[in-house]
């Protein structure tokens, strides 16, 4: 594995006193709690007629792809290793947990969550669940891979193969081009 | 007396940061900070894609997510050290001043630039929001569908906390004693969003 100096994430956080909005790197950002996240996830599970689980993942993918692509461009970050490190730091800065991309290439990859907001929040609210529920995290990872390799959204799909919410010590995701 | 300007200035400076695990355990909940676009996208795509006969159910669930969030996180906020330091010294009339203070915090946290314009204790509250991220989905024209699900849910939840009895961490009682209807919306072409909270009829 190539060693490299970690590029630090620098977020430009501003409270706009006119609109009363919090802006992070120019985008409106909002605080929410695990109740909100868990109930949106439950809604996605319940709404099977629309495949709302994919819808939730796609919304996460779109939002984070835009954020990360914009960040890489603004800060002239081009090396995949730097981009991956910044994506991991962004995941943590958003309070979504500790993400480690353990391998990545233009065709596929793997990612691990040692800690997860969605899983811990779900467990705190309702206890364990038999199947993975982290569609928001899967969307983040898909969007991050596309941003890292300068590809459009929906290039990659991340599938959760093991989850904290089901009792595993960490969550695991397989990533592959569609 | 509640000094909104002072509360907004102080509470907007509070920075919630993640711990070494990438989590934000604050106010007795796990907090996250994501692009507003993510939440808007899901609500908008969901409500535009469901069949017309399912729209009410989908909107109810979106509002409910905010209602439960507002109830639990709202309680965490009004019992926090930050609240005790900034807002509590201004409170003279309970729970009405708490409600006014809560909407100042709601504003400071970037959920909606909002205030109470009418309050009938234990009965009815009207809130106006002059800027809110949930209106961002419409960038041209006016929508026939109001979309401020978060403000609806949280407004009702704040009334639950004020007049719905003792806080129940299990959420089995206390929450859902009030409901909220959106009567105006920036996304609908109005100058501001308006929200009317009344006793629950469910």
Q: What do these coordinates show?
A:
The complex is a heterodimer of chains A (178) and B (202). The longest helix of chain A has 23 residues, at 52-74. Chain A has one domain (34-177): Muramoyl-pentapeptide Carboxypeptidase, domain 2 (2-Layer Sandwich), CATH 3.30.1380. In chain A, helix 1 packs across helix 2 and helix 3 (80-93) packs antiparallel against helix 5. Chain A has helices spanning 34-46, 52-74, 80-93, 117-126, 135-148; strands at residues 13-16, 21-24, 27-33, 97-104, 108-116, 156-162, 171-177. The model of chain A has no long low-confidence stretch (mean pLDDT 95). Helix content of chain A is 42%, strand content 26%. The two termini of chain A are 27 Å apart. In chain B, a hairpin with a 3-residue loop joins strand 3 and strand 4. Chain B is built from six helices and six strands. The radius of gyration of chain B is 17 Å and the shape is globular. In chain B, helix 1 (4-11) packs across helix 5 (96-108). Chain B has one domain (4-9, 35-199): Trafficking protein particle complex subunit 3 (Muramoyl-pentapeptide Carboxypeptidase, domain 2), CATH 3.30.1380.20. The interface between A and B is large, with 53 and 51 residues.
């Amino acid at each position: 594995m190539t060693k490299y100096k970690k590029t630090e994430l620098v977020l430009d956080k501003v409270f706009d006193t006119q609109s009363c909005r919090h802006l992070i790197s120019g985008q409106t950002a909002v605080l929410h709690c695990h109740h909100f996240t868990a109930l949106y996830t439950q809604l996605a599970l319940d709404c099977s007629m629309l495949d709302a689980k994919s819808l939730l993942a796609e919304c996460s993918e779109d939002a984070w792809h835009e954020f990360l692509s914009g960040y890489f461009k603004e800060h002239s970050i081009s090396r995949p290793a730097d981009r991956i490190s910044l994506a991991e730091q962004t995941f943590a800065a958003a309070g979504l947990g500790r993400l480690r991309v353990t391998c990545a290439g233009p065709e596929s990859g793997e990612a691990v969550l040692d800690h997860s907001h969605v899983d811990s929040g779900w467990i705190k609210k309702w206890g364990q669940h038999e199947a993975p529920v982290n569609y928001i995290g899967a969307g983040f990872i898909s969007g991050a891979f596309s941003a890292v390799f300068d590809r459009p959204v929906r290039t990659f799909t991340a599938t959760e193969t093991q989850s904290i919410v089901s009792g595993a010590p960490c969550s695991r995701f397989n990533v592959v081009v569609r | 007396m509640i000094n909104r300007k002072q509360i907004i200035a102080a509470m907007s400076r509070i920075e919630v940061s993640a711990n070494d695990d990438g989590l934000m355990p604050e106010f007795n909940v796990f907090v996250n900070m994501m692009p507003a676009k993510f939440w808007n996208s899901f609500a908008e795509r969901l409500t535009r894609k469901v069949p017309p006969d399912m729209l009410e159910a989908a909107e109810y669930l979106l509002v409910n997510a905010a209602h439960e969030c507002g109830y639990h996180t709202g309680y965490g906020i009004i019992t926090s050290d930050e609240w005790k330091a900034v807002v509590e010294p201004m409170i003279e009339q309970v729970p009405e001043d708490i409600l006014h203070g809560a909407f100042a915090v709601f504003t400071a946290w970037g959920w909606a630039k909002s205030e109470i314009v009418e309050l009938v204790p234990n009965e009815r509250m009207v809130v106006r929001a002059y800027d809110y991220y949930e209106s961002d989905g419409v960038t041209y024209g006016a929508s026939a569908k109001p979309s401020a699900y978060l403000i609806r849910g949280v407004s009702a939840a704040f009334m639950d906390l004020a007049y719905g009895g003792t806080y129940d961490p299990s959420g089995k009682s206390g929450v859902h004693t009030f409901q909220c209807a959106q009567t105006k919306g920036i996304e609908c072409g109005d100058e501001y969003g308006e929200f009317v909270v009344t006793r629950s009829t469910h």
